[in-house]
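Lab notebook, design round three. We kept the backbone fixed and only want residue identities now. Task for the bench partner: fill in a sequence for the structure below.
Input structure tokens:
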């Protein structure tokens, strides 16, 4: 569920966002209702095991608006009794009334976007909270009974240093979190910070320094008792993001809202990026998707390998339908063997994984495999 509204757009953000106003929210609600009516028949008889409110800033919605959104979704879709319900929240927007509304509705997992605990870095990134606010938000969430909390961090952006990262990681470690996501900065040309970084002609941080920061991150997470289960994600035992595992294991998922992407019954589609374009299509009675693709066997195999090898547990036959795994072996069998010989992969029971020492270069290994599979 993509909620596009933000109080302020961060300097690095390239996601689909929209200016917050009463009229804009009402138009978005009308669009969500139309799209939910359009997609609900596809899910007849399905009890969803996870629901993820992403953005934008879902926590920008008032408690009244959130309850309205929750009622709209529950009237059209079925959630399993033990479903994971995650909401992304900015630390400054975590207030008592909202936390109470989320808990009452059934949200049982919060993901706070902190990015850094360094004042100068927060200003550079365009964040509007200070370094103390994530700590306060976590304490408030605990007081309201939330037992599964995650924190988003970034590293490798312009001006980022190992010393600053160490201070941020130490502060994060004091919070007793169940889950941390940490993403390496990618300069996007459509963002103010990205334009400046790209204009410099070089990477925001040299590749070797990015790799060192990732190793620093991994060691700090291990020290907190959080294990890496996907390249950028760390958690305590049994605290993985069920929703994100749906993506990495290439399970079916539906999506609503501007720029939202779905993978359902062998077909992928992506909605129009801009909120106004997405809403206008629905107002005309059109499908808001701007791109669609039926997944042929080769594409399905490529996606399984690309996504599954990011998991620290690796790519395992038991995680896929026998026909899909047979397709993977036909297309990639020789490439897997060559990768093991080259030290890029190691075998695990029923499959393959990228060795820990190469985890930061997972995309390079996946591209290497894909080139040999096509050759």
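Proposed sequence:
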């Amino acid at each position: 569920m993509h909620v596009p509204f933000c109080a302020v757009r961060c300097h690095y953000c390239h996601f689909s966002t929209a200016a917050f106003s009463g009229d804009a929210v009402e138009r978005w609600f009308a669009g969500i209702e139309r799209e939910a009516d359009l997609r609900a028949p596809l899910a007849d008889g399905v009890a969803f095991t996870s629901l993820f409110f992403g953005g934008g800033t879902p926590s920008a919605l008032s408690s009244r608006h959130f309850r309205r959104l929750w009622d709209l979704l529950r009237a059209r879709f079925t959630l399993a009794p033990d479903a994971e319900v995650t909401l992304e929240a900015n630390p400054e927007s975590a207030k008592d009334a909202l936390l109470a509304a989320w808990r009452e509705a059934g949200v049982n997992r919060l993901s706070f976007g902190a990015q850094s605990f360094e004042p100068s870095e927060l200003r550079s990134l365009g964040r509007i909270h200070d370094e103390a606010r994530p700590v306060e938000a976590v304490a408030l969430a605990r007081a309201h009974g939330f037992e599964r909390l995650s924190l988003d961090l970034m590293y490798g952006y312009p001006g980022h240093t190992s010393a600053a990262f160490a201070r941020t990681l130490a502060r994060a470690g004091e919070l007793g979190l169940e889950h941390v996501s940490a993403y390496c900065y990618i300069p996007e040309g459509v963002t103010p910070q990205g334009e400046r970084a790209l204009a410099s002609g070089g990477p925001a941080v040299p590749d070797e320094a990015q790799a060192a920061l990732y190793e620093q991150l991994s060691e700090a997470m291990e020290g907190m008792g959080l294990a890496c289960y996907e390249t950028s994600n760390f958690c305590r035992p049994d605290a993985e993001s069920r929703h994100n595992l749906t993506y990495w294991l290439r399970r079916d998922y539906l999506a609503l809202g501007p720029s939202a992407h779905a993978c359902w019954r062998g077909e992928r589609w992506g909605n129009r990026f801009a909120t106004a374009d997405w809403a206008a299509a629905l107002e005309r009675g059109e499908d808001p998707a701007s791109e669609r693709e039926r997944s042929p066997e080769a594409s399905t195999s490529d996606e399984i390998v690309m996504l599954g090898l990011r998991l620290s547990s690796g790519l395992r036959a038991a995680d896929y339908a026998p026909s899909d795994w047979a397709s993977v072996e036909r297309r990639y069998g020789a490439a897997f063997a060559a990768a093991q010989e080259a030290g890029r992969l190691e075998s695990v029971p029923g499959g393959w994984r990228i060795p820990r020492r190469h985890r930061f270069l997972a995309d390079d290994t996946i591209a290497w495999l894909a080139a040999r599979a096509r050759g």
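Keep this in mind before ordering anything: Residues 2-17+40-244 form a domain with the TIM Barrel fold (CATH 3.20.20.70).
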